[in-house]
Amino acid sequence: MTNRSNYRIAVLPGDGIGKEVIAEAEKVLKAVGERAGQEFTMVHGLVGGAAMDAMGEPLSDATFDMVSAADAVLFGAVGDPKYDDPQAKVRPEQALFKLRGGLGLFANLRPVQVQPALIAASPLRPELVRDTDLIVVRELTGGIYFGEPRVEGTERAVDTMVYTRAEVERIAHMAFRIARQRRHKVTSVDKANVLACSRLWRAVVASVAEGYPDVSLEHMLVDSAAMHLLRRPGDFDVILTANQFGDILSDETSMLAGSMGMLPSASLGEGRFGLYEPIHGSAPDIAGKGIANPLAAILSVAMMLRHSLEMEAEAQAVEAAVTGVLDSGYRTADIASPGEPAVTTSRMGELVIDALAGAWAQ
């Protein structure tokens, strides 16, 4: 339990189902505060398409300043069909790039644990996913997403990928420190047989590994990693990888858990400040229908409690409450079996809050 009397949390629901799932996550965080005797001050801002509607830009300077003054950020999702032109110079997704770069958030952590009650929700065979317990550590501020795109007429386009030794070193150190708290194994994923950036990545990761003799390191090409994540997911512990590869592979891991609606994430820098969000997008096709799964957002609250607020017992209580609700048979539409009744977004949030009392006693 922290000694702080108050934490300031910036809440950025964003677009689509982001508003719906963050509403439930915020309720859970308030319930945790009430039970723990901890005060959370929530400050709200617009981001993504919602911010473009109101202010003409995906993230205003005022909102960025508000976030910078907070202890942590609870983030929903960005993306709106009316801003979906890939040629547009301003897009909702640029808000995340500004937040990550401006706040020095260079590491994205995406844990993947298959809930025993949801083994059947995965399209993979139960015996393959049953022992899955891994975390993807994705570099966030370098690579091709932060390169210099160039369009040459209608016949040619160029994207550049850049990584520096310092960028690779800091994300590698984080991955090895995390592995020491888990099963002491790092799988570094690259494309060193083709890309110069990946050859630098592999060399630097190997050098960093020398400082962690208690952690085993294996190198794996990204195409092999994509295959083995489906073939033998239980063999992975910590997956360390670059920005683009981590984006793709972590979405693939959602199928191990049965749904993107089950996976939280944390974006961290050198200190305790972090941005916490479900890995799913804004899902405009189901927005406003009350059927979105809020559990990834709620589990993101658990990650916030653990990493930024130093409230480990409370984080475990939230995770236990989610497990308890699932073990009791409650499902949202994305994880329900055919013909199985599903609860609404708000009802799932209520169930987790109700389960917190029992989780606290464990």
Explain how this protein is built.
The chain is of the alpha/beta class. The chain has two domains: 1-110 and 259-362, 3-Layer(aba) Sandwich (Isopropylmalate Dehydrogenase); 123-257, Isopropylmalate Dehydrogenase (3-Layer(aba) Sandwich). 41% of the residues lie in helices and 19% in strands. It contains twelve helices and twelve strands. The chain has helices spanning 17-36, 49-55, 61-68, 94-103, 126-129, 165-180, 196-209, 222-231, 243-257, 295-307, 312-327, 345-360, and strands at residues 6-14, 39-44, 72-77, 107-113, 133-139, 150-152, 156-158, 185-190, 216-221, 238-241, 264-268, 274-278. The strands form two sheets. The protein has a ten-stranded mixed sheet with strand order 2-1-3-12-11-4-5-10-8-9, with helices on both faces. A two-stranded antiparallel sheet has the order 6-7.
Keywords:
362 residues, alpha/beta, Isopropylmalate Dehydrogenase, 2 domains, 12 helices, 41% helix
Question: How would you summarize the topology of this molecule?
Answer:
Elements: E1 6-14, H1 17-36, E2 39-44, H2 49-55, H3 61-68, E3 72-77, H4 94-103, E4 107-113, H5 126-129, E5 133-139, E6 150-152, E7 156-158, H6 165-180, E8 185-190, H7 196-209, E9 216-221, H8 222-231, E10 238-241, H9 243-257, E11 264-268, E12 274-278, H10 295-307, H11 312-327, H12 345-360
Parallel strand pairs: 1-2, 1-3, 3-12, 5-10, 8-9, 8-10
Antiparallel strand pairs: 4-5, 4-11, 6-7, 11-12
Helix pairs in contact: 1-10, 1-12, 6-7, 8-9, 10-11, 11-12
